[in-house]
Recover the amino acids of this structure.
């Protein structure tokens, strides 16, 4: 008994203390992964904030964006041009979604909109494969997936640039939605559609903006994850990893998505490296969901989510 | 209990900007033969109504008479299948709600529609969105014109907060306020847009006597101080007789009377509608 307690509560910390530089490497890896989870979660948060809809298709949007980018690059377009075209495609997609899916369903129950996003999910999946094929594709963004030594610590170049990009993007979005007029309008729309309309906020425009931003965020996430593990169908499954992040951070909070992502990313890396051997490894795959479960029990609105006020 | 003459400066006698009897120019809003249908239900049937510049018009009628539907048609939430709506002399029948708001028509809702998660102050600031211009970068950096604009708007909002006597709750989340205060904040948000025409859907529903008196005072003050034209739906006949220059009565989707409060209260069709529909 004592040896089990020792192995769980003392041993791992002794390991951490005995090799601080390795601990830092693990932490950095965790932060990098965490920021990338944040980015996917951010896509969900934006759409949920503005329309109260849980966008089931967010994961497939990541895949679709990456597929389009790789497809265009294979057609021989240089990277910057391919990126611009893909951005344009994602914005066009936002217009199409507003026109074809959201507008006809305005004022419907949220569950109906959710079902519509499931439909969108399957459509985009099929459409992407029809256009670009279903093979695994390699995405080369010109940054090598190699480690370099930096003040005695090994850092992966690709992971670090991905983390940097994610950090910048998240900051920009947070400032944008806190400070600007659009941000205020977005919060208003999220709170009450009718009231927002009555004070002159055009719902359509807000939806197009939000879905465009969610599409661009999906593109960045797609590039980063695609460069790491290839562009293939499983890319859309990282959306599943964003769920615990959302439960942790709250469905309506941009900073929450960031902090939630970091907690999950760092937590699962630490768990895997230091506690994993105790149970034979592979903690990484389920750690996030257990954390989410605990949060659901004690703080269902998440760390930063708005407190759920229900009138009875 | 609520004789119009009892209150000094009540209906008609009250000096209002171009009020009853002092009409010049066309009415601010004209509803012409408007019909609204929900499936088989005819919610409004050839209703015509005008709202004159500077007046306080009350729209009354038994439950289900079509009062809220009429307000929803004016503010663009519903569109009539026949008839026209003219605002400021121009046809505005098929505008969407945000465009109606941009014309200077603000409204409140029967079941308070506030931004519940935002503070009272933010609710009012959001009400001013139409008055603000966007500078993406400047807004984000909180710099130069963006800052000046925010401060100028803030000053206007603070004036409304003082006017409605809600200084004490300005930082509170709107959703946590008692119902009466929520109604007052909602009025404040509508005022923040500096509307020409203010539509109030049961501004005093669920209020106690004192709250009703406060709200009546605010409505009259808005009308006289800002010169805002007001059309409101109200059930409390005492209040209606007290604060309105003119009363329009709806019943089963038709307008059955329209005129000065003291005339409408004696109108036989109105008495029948009320006695028949709500007390019978």
């Amino acid at each position: 008994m004592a040896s089990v307690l020792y192995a769980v509560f003392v041993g791992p910390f002794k390991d951490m203390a005995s090799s601080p530089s390795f601990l830092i490497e693990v932490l950095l890896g965790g932060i990098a992964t965490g920021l990338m989870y944040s980015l996917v979660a951010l896509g969900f948060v934006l759409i949920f904030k503005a329309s109260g809809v849980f966008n089931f298709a967010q994961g497939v949007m990541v895949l679709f964006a990456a597929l389009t980018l790789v497809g265009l690059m294979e057609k021989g377009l240089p990277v910057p041009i391919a990126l611009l075209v893909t951005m344009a495609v994602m914005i066009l997609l936002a217009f199409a979604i507003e026109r074809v899916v959201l507008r006809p369903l305005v004022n419907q129950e949220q569950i109906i909109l959710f079902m519509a996003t499931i439909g969108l999910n399957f459509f985009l999946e099929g459409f992407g494969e029809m256009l670009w094929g279903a093979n695994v594709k390699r995405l080369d963004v010109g940054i090598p997936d190699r480690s370099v030594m930096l003040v005695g610590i090994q850092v992966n170049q690709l992971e670090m640039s991905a983390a940097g990009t994610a950090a910048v993007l998240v900051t920009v979005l947070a400032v944008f939605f806190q400070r600007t007029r659009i941000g205020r309008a977005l919060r208003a729309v999220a709170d009450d559609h009718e009231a927002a309309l009555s004070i002159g906020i055009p719902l359509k425009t807000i939806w197009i903006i939000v879905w465009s931003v969610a599409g661009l965020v999906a593109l960045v996430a797609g590039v980063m994850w695609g460069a790491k593990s290839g562009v293939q169908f499983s890319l859309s499954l990282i959306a599943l990893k964003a769920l615990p992040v959302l439960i942790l951070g709250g469905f309506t909070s941009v900073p929450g998505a960031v902090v939630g992502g970091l907690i999950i990313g760092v937590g699962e890396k630490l768990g895997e490296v230091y506690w994993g051997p105790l149970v034979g490894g592979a903690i990484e795959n389920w750690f996030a969901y257990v954390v989410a479960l605990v949060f659901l029990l004690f703080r269902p609105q998440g760390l930063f989510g708005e407190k759920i006020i229900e009138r009875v | 209990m609520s004789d119009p003459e009892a209150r000094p400066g009540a209906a008609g006698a009250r000096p209002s900007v171009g009020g009853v009897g002092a009409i010049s120019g066309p009415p601010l809003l004209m509803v012409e033969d408007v019909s609204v249908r929900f499936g088989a239900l005819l919610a409004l049937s050839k209703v015509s109504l005008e709202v004159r510049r500077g007046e306080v018009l009350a729209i009354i009628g038994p439950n289900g008479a079509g009062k809220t539907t009429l307000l929803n048609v004016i503010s663009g939430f519903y569109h009539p299948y026949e008839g026209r709506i003219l605002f400021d002399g121009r046809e505005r029948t098929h505008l969407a709600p945000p465009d109606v708001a941009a014309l200077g028509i603000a409204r409140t809702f029967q079941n308070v529609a506030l931004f519940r998660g935002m503070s009272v102050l933010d609710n009012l600031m959001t009400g001013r969105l139409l008055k603000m211009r966007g500078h993406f970068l400047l807004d984000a950096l909180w710099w130069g014109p963006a800052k000046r604009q925010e401060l100028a708007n803030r000053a206007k909002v603070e004036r409304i907060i003082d006017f409605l006597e809600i200084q004490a709750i300005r930082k509170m989340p709107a959703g946590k306020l008692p119902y009466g205060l929520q109604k007052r904040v909602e009025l404040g948000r509508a005022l923040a847009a500096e509307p020409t025409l203010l539509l109030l859907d049961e501004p005093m529903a669920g209020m106690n006597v004192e709250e009703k008196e406060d709200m009546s005072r605010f409505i009259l003050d808005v009308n006289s101080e800002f010169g805002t034209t007001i059309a409101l739906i109200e059930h409390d006949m005492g209040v209606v007789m007290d604060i309105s220059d003119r009363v329009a009565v709806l019943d089963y989707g038709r307008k059955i009377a329209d005129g000065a409060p003291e005339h409408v209260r004696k109108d036989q069709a109105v008495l029948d509608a009320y006695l028949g529909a709500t007390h019978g």
Remarks:
- The longest strand of chain A covers residues 147-150.
- The first helix of chain A runs from residue 2 to 9.
- Chain A touches chain B at residues 175-176, 179-182, 184-185, 187-188, 190-192, 194-203, 306, 309 (CB under 8 Å).
